[in-house]
Specification:
Blueprint: E1 17-21, H1 26-29, H2 61-66, E2 78-81, E3 89-90, E4 93-94, H3 116-124, H4 136-148, H5 153-178, H6 205-221, E5 228-231, H7 251-256, H8 262-287, E6 290-291, E7 294-295, E8 302-305, E9 321-324, E10 335-338, H9 349-359
Length: 377
């Protein structure tokens, strides 16, 4: 694997990632809206409605996961962003499209949270939940024995049957944990290991993003959620990247559409490297957390992606994609998978999403425009 300049921040993690080349969303590539027809369907592969009286995009695969395995945790999914949702029109379409990649239904985006303090409160603010990893039966054994002395023989047998069924479930969960299966995963933290962020939205963009990524790590460590998305920039973003040395101008108009000016292209490369560096930071954080025989990264699967290969050309016939983590040992990393010449039927991004849902224990028969898993070469 040879890492190019855009992916330079991932160089230390080559053996922890899979580089995917040539995947695409056919509905996005065919859409007449170069931006709003190609960003909200990033994780769904669905057609984006151009009816000004109707907002409609397919449900994204992270929300399919939220409605299946998400019920196993306190927060079905975390949907995070850095820039607020915009409600203005662009090319006759709502910027609601450009502000969201996670869609709870075909017509409603999942609520995107941009305030770190509110994310923290969502994760730990209620103070509820068991504080002990002891067996449920161990905690109530004295009460159960006392109850058995006061009930009839037949009721005693029923109580024994009930207690045995609970013990059986606990044993199966413990065995699953020893075997590394998803349902047996145990949190590594019972209390947060970071302070609550301040209420105001941080004005320092790098600090803001790192806070959001740290909160994702915290959520995974505490098993508060198992699904998270983070949108680093809205489509058509006018964010100024002046916090990067030698960079000036807005992300979309000045840097993305740079007219192939060498100086502006060099600045634009720095913004791409900055985005990839955030993903590398998340990978590094998860890799540093020990969960027995594996790390939290080993027990996770992360996807870093964009809707366009070339932002200046609005090129949507290929999508830049990287996977990281080993999905509990089910995903082999340190590979480049090239689908560009495999034929359009074999390079559907939705086939990747089907595969990721399968890795997460939420298999689907079809999703978006795909009815089969992606072929892992």
């Amino acid at each position: 694997m040879q890492v190019g300049p855009g992916l330079k921040p991932m160089q230390p993690h080559c053996q922890d990632m899979v580089f995917l080349r040539g995947l695409y969303n056919a509905q996005a590539a065919a859409h007449k809206s170069a931006h709003l027809g190609r960003s909200p369907n990033l994780l769904s592969g669905a057609w984006v409605s151009t009816d000004q009286n109707e907002i409609r995009v397919g449900r994204s695969f992270d929300q399919v996961l939220a409605q299946t395995i998400g019920r196993r945790s306190a927060v079905p999914s975390l949907v995070l962003g850095i820039e607020p949702t915009e409600l203005r029109l662009e090319d006759g379409l709502s910027m609601l499209y450009g502000s969201n990649i996670s869609w709870a239904t075909d017509t409603k985006p999942a609520t995107k949270e941009i305030y770190p303090a509110r994310v923290f409160d969502l994760l730990v603010g209620d103070g509820k939940g068991r504080e002990s990893d002891r067996s449920v039966l161990d905690e109530v054994l004295a009460d159960a024995n006392d109850l058995k002395r006061r009930v009839s023989r037949s009721d005693g047998r029923k109580l024994d049957e009930y207690l045995e069924s609970v013990r059986s479930i606990e044993t199966r969960i413990a065995r699953a944990g020893e075997e590394g299966r998803l349902e047996g995963w145990q949190p590594t933290l019972t209390k947060p290991n970071m302070a609550r962020p301040d209420d105001p939205l941080p004005q320092d963009i790098p600090v803001h993003i790192r806070l959001m990524l740290d909160l994702i790590v915290l959520a995974f460590q505490m098993d508060k959620t198992r699904i998270a998305t983070c949108m680093l920039n809205n489509d058509l973003s006018q964010m100024n990247f002046g916090f990067l040395e030698g960079v000036r101008g807005s992300l979309h108009l000045d840097l993305t559409h740079n007219g192939r000016d060498p100086e502006l292209e060099a600045m634009y490369l720095k913004t791409n490297q900055f985005h990839v560096a955030q993903f590398a930071y998340l990978v590094n954080r998860l890799k540093a957390i020990d969960e027995g025989e594996r790390t939290l990264l080993d027990n996770s699967v992360l996807l870093c992606c964009s809707n366009l290969l070339d932002g200046d050309k609005h090129q949507a016939d290929q999508m830049p994609m990287i996977l990281a983590g080993r999905a509990g040992g089910r995903l082999k990393t340190g590979r480049v998978l090239d689908y560009l010449e495999a034929g359009d039927e074999n390079r559907r991004a939705c086939s990747l999403y089907l595969s990721l849902m399968d890795l997460m224990g939420a298999s689907q028969t079809h999703f978006g425009d795909a009815e089969r898993l992606l072929a892992w070469l």
